[in-house]
């Protein structure tokens, strides 16, 4: 393709809502700057719990219509972020939400967790070779917090990036492409702790308060290699999170998932570069995920 924007960012996530929580400000920033922002979501989030009582019937243990509903929530969220290229791995409903670790749904045929990485990865190889991203963002090997679909999204993203670069691998899926930089989603421990201190002081409207250990991707501060200040896009991020009506309740700079436990909503987003060259001077954090990238 010759008409691709110069800068191209690919994000791989497990369920609708993960992208807005983790990367909403980053996605809004790069979309506003004219970069191609491509989101690949691996499942429809069919096993999620539902917050609003009037939508509770959608849940998997009742009507089992949550997946289709969350397709609409994701579309609304992407509108808020200005992101037009969002897709589901292998098409909507190809891989099903596996539920939390240890539940019977993990082993269901078609569950994402129950899918061989090398069966899922080609679907992403095709996307990588089509949109040719310089930057890939996904989770760490523990999926940030141990959810099977997040772990699997990490495995599929890392494997697909490797395969996409292989000239001999599936030429029918497009010309080989090497991703220049790969990042994992992170939150510095000091930032998480400060966020919870603000929440305890402010006292949001949620019945309880979560813990630093509940925040995916928390690591010691020195592991952070990039920070994206999304203050200009904080409103868009909050609006995108609110669009995930069944999953997220937002209250000012705080939010809660279905467990009703408040946590801080971060408008600065943090990353750890795990493959590729940092564009920042030694020892400093990058402030642009494309720093040092030759954008052609
Ligand atoms: Zn998720």
TrEMBL record:
It comes from the Bacteria. Keywords: Hydrolase, Metal-binding, Zinc. SUPFAM superfamilies: LmbE-like. Pfam families: PIG-L. Zn(2+) binds at residues 15, 18, 150. NCBIfam families: mycothiol_MshB. Belongs to the MshB deacetylase family. PANTHER family: 1D-MYO-INOSITOL 2-ACETAMIDO-2-DEOXY-ALPHA-D-GLUCOPYRANOSIDE DEACETYLASE, N-ACETYLGLUCOSAMINYL-PHOSPHATIDYLINOSITOL DE-N-ACETYLASE-RELATED. This is 1D-myo-inositol 2-acetamido-2-deoxy-alpha-D-glucopyranoside deacetylase. It comes from Streptomyces noboritoensis.
